Amino acid sequence: MFKDIFNLALLQHTIRTATPLILAAMGGLLTQEAGILNIGLEGMILLGAFFGVVGSFFFGTSAMGVGFAVLSGIIIGLIFAFFVIDLKSDEFVIGIAINMFAGGLTVFLLRSIFGVKGAFSSPKIIALPRINIPILDKIPILNTLLNNHTIFVYVSWILVVLIYIYLYKTAQGRWLRASGEYPEALETAGISPRKMKYIASIMCGILCGLAGAHLSLGYLKLFTEQMSANRGFIAMAAIIFGGGNPIRTALAALLFGFFDALGIRLQAVGIPSQITQMIPYGATVVALVVMTKRKINQTRVKREQINE
Amino acid sequence: MKLVTKERKEYLISLSLSIIISLLMGGVIMLINGKSPIVGYGALLDGAFGSKFKIANTLAKTAPLVMTGLATAIAFNSGISNIGGEGQLYLGAFAAALSGIYLSFLPKSISIIAVILIAGIVGGLYAFIPGILKVKFKVNEVVTTIMFNTIAILFTSYLVNNPFATSDSKMSGTDIIASSFQLDKLVSLTTLNSSIYYVALIVILMYYLMNKTSNGYEFKMVGQNGLFAKYGGVKSGKTMMIAMVISGAICGITGAFEVIGVHYRFLEKISPELAFDGMLVALVVKNNPIGIVAMGLFFAAMKTGSIYMETATGIPSELVKVIQAVIILFIAGENGFKSIYINWKLNRESIKEEN
Amino acid sequence: MEDYILELKNITKKFPGVVANNDINLNIKEGEIHAIIGENGAGKSTLMNILYGLIKPTSGKIIHKGKPVKFNNSLDARDCGIGMVHQHFKLVPSFTVWENITLGVEVRKNKIFVDEKKSLEYISDLSKKYGLEVNPMDRVEFLSVGIQQRVEILKALYKGADIIILDEPTAVLTPQETDELFVVIKELVKDQGKTVIIITHKLREVMAISDRVSVMRRGEMIDTVNTKDVDENRLAELMVGREVLLDEVARDKIDSSEVMMEVKDLYARNNLDMLAVRGMDLKLKKGEILGIAGIEGNGQSELIESLTGLRDIAKGEIYISGEKIKKINPLSMRKHGVAHVPEDRLSMGLSKDATIMENLLMGNQNKKEYRGKLNHLKKKNVRSMSKKLIADFDVRTPSEDVLIDNLSGGNMQKVVIAREFNFNTPILIISQPTRGVDIGAIEFIHQEIIKKRNEGVAILLVSAELDEIFRLSDRIVTMYEGRMTGEFKPSEITRQEIGLYMTGKTLREEE
What we know:
The structure holds 3 protein chains of 3 kinds. By secondary structure, chain A is mostly helical. Chain A has helices spanning 2-5, 8-33, 41-59, 62-86, 91-114, 140-146, 151-169, 171-181, 183-188, 193-217, 231-241, 246-268, 274-299, and strands spanning 119-121, 222-224. In chain A, helix 2 packs across helix 8 (171-181) and helix 3 (41-59) packs across helix 11 (231-241). Chain A is globular. In chain B, helix 2 packs across helix 3, helix 3 packs across helix 8 (214-224) and helix 4 runs parallel beside helix 6 (141-161). Chain B has a domain at 62-285. Chain B is an all-alpha fold. Chain B has helices spanning 6-32, 37-49, 52-77, 85-102, 108-137, 141-161, 195-212, 214-224, 226-231, 236-263, 274-284, 289-313, 319-332, 334-354. Helices cover 76% and strands 0% of the residues of chain B. By secondary structure, chain C is α/β, with parallel strands linked by helices. In chain C, strand 19 (427-431), helix 15 (439-454) and strand 20 (458-462) form a beta-alpha-beta unit. Chains in contact: A-B, A-C, B-C. At the A-B interface, helix 4, helix 5, helix 11 and helix 13 of A face helix 6, helix 11, helix 13 and helix 14 of B.
């Protein structure tokens, strides 16, 4: 039984399930670094998943699907930014509203455009292309593990590195981080924190859109109601777990993806999956407590002693 | 004698405008879909209030929204953001189901009170953890309560599929609770049950607590300006904790009512994000208890009405979710819109002056 | 006129309801250290923010090297070689020193990437040139305040500043760090030809470092003088001013032998964990007003917060009517009969989202008179109390249901005073009772304070306005750097003399 669960397919499955988590987490990480706690990731993913199907279905190419998903991401990112940054609304209220909005809108459109309830699939939906890396064909283990995934799997890995470089090695990335941590510092340096926050929100929308497109066009070629299935919140957990670092966030997403994949397999052999699924959330709470405590300890300056 | 303050007036105007604009947007969407908004909204209204059954269903849907709305209000009012209502609700519901199964020996006279107490305590305890983490360790309660939601939902899902799975059907649910724990349905073929009386009582109690008592005053002051409250001798940490626990308890009781009033057992997905809907209701009316009742009724009417609207006119019921989300967006952006409007007015005036 | 590097002509800045700067003229010479002094709210910061392009003046001109300039933002000011070191440092805590210095003006390679190597080289050259030692790789949040300030100065220099504005640079520094900073400033001016503008209210420092001093008061420029032509007393006089000449207030003779509150060897820390109160001893007697005179920032705020339970005491004891207070927190101090008018009504004294009535209720909500058996508030009593206080204290408002935010500063302050005075406590601690309050309200508030004194209440009064201290106090204690430097009867000392004690001079001489 052990071999049935812990095998290469599990790891391959992990890579697959982790991809939307990584993408969304990268998006959330950018807003997080710009000082905005975005709990609307869930809704943004859902919109991406839906509009990915719309684009792919009507234009017959997965590229248009991705294009639609990205466009929906840009629009929702702009709305989010406008309310949070310009109207100074509570970020989590807007996040929740976006989740509700996305949940309602996707189902509404599902029915008014496709006339179906619950789920929509069609042969006309073109899936994302799979990438075959010829060299890997000959290496048995790596081949199963790393080859023939959809394009977004590789894109997500590259993005993690790119975002790391962006945040830590480029001037604009630095400004983005400064806009979140201490906007006044950036402002006095003559750069608008507002602009940075807008950039972060829009990029977040785009990345969540991609995550959604991966869900609906990656392997399944279908859209179902609430298909984001809490991934936005797991991505948020990964961000917190990763402590603001893209690499660690991606690893956390991979780990959470692993638990997800494992849960499904355990379920198949009659072991309840919920326990493994709970791990990301529980671990995040623990991590948050530890990190908050460490931060308080770190920032405490040396006390001046009383000289008698 | 209560004066309608300038702020309240302005807010009521904003709220009405938000609702009207959102409904108009909904109408436009209907038009795009080739449906008449008048027919659509007519069906919606009819579906919500058109008959005894429809009214009963609307009221039944109002109850949990009002409960979770009040739970949100008391916490937010005190400056602690309890987004964990959903999790507290699940645990409360599960505790209620277990009580209904294992305490079946209790007579009906005690059983209902016992189950409310138990669910309240369970929900309250589950809110206590993120509360204490915030007050003592300054851990962001928004994040912890969100995580706690999913943990509770998964945990109860585990329990209901494994140790406590019912044997009499394949559904993911517990056994049916003892009849002494089942609340009567008030209108047959609807979900309206006698829990509505308890809800009414809780509404009155909460209104009294929040608006009439010194405790309510302290909650409010801690939420508005923690330093001022501290300066005035209010223990803000303790006050926040009390508010958080009450909030959790109400959510737990909401869950219990779903079990003892509606389903008579715990089901895996017992709440369609009731606590989130309730939270949004509270946010729209800025945590005002009376407003929560009114807005809860409005949201619930839209919910029940939308289902009738769908069968009658073919307009998908989810349209109301979109409308509700837009109302919330507008209200959340209220101050921002206002200041943009004021700046625009000032600008125009100063330009006039210069000319 | 050529020797002025910077001229401000007739600068006026109006905010809604306030004139922060009224027709200000200021000339800065190249290569001088120019101090700008004034009490809080005198308009110094507004003026400097105008100079740094963060605020646009309502009217007036800025002339840089003979040419009129317009600053739309800080970049424009930077282009004229103006750099600013803010009182609250504008440093990103998790960034390293070099990242902070270069923020916004990064050395780049391939257009988008930051060139770390070149940045580091550049910064190490810069820090050698100006003698400002830093480790560019340190993270700012782990650095001491003094070093952080050095980073700020380097940041200004890195961005090519010739004129450096230092806003209250010593407010957060230890004496040693202050001395080090002064050495740096002098070198910048003497060896590197920079011009330095230093904003402060510490007169000793003005004397120690500046070439010229400009004094501001209530939004106006009072005078600019050569430092060597004046002494601290003269400056203190200019700063505090005396234009508000109010009549003497009638005070009854009463027996004030009973000690109501006693403070023994009190130490307290400020928010940066540095000692702000260093061994204060006070005896507050029945029916007297004990005024604490001192330039702001010498531990008065921390002292008051310690006595009212808002700040933990590092060491020392408090006695009330001879009884040692064991548990010191806001509630227990109130229960022991201490009412408190705080220095900042908006952040502490009021909730601006609440109505006048709700603000007047604070502290009363658990009293029998206002709370019934079921914890319900007796709204009738609360309302009648509110109405009475609004009438008694002449709060100008249409009703008690108005949000406090809609009131003027003076009326807000009256609400705070009404509430605290209404507790009828034997002890009153009052801080800056008339800050930002119009003259009419000042007179009224002063009368109310004296009335309380005549009723036998023991009053501790802290004020930055020397006139207020002199007018109200039966006894004056001067405070300097967290310590008491002298104790006087107002009739036995002049304002000039007290200035010496407020600046710590006499204490040093006596040592």
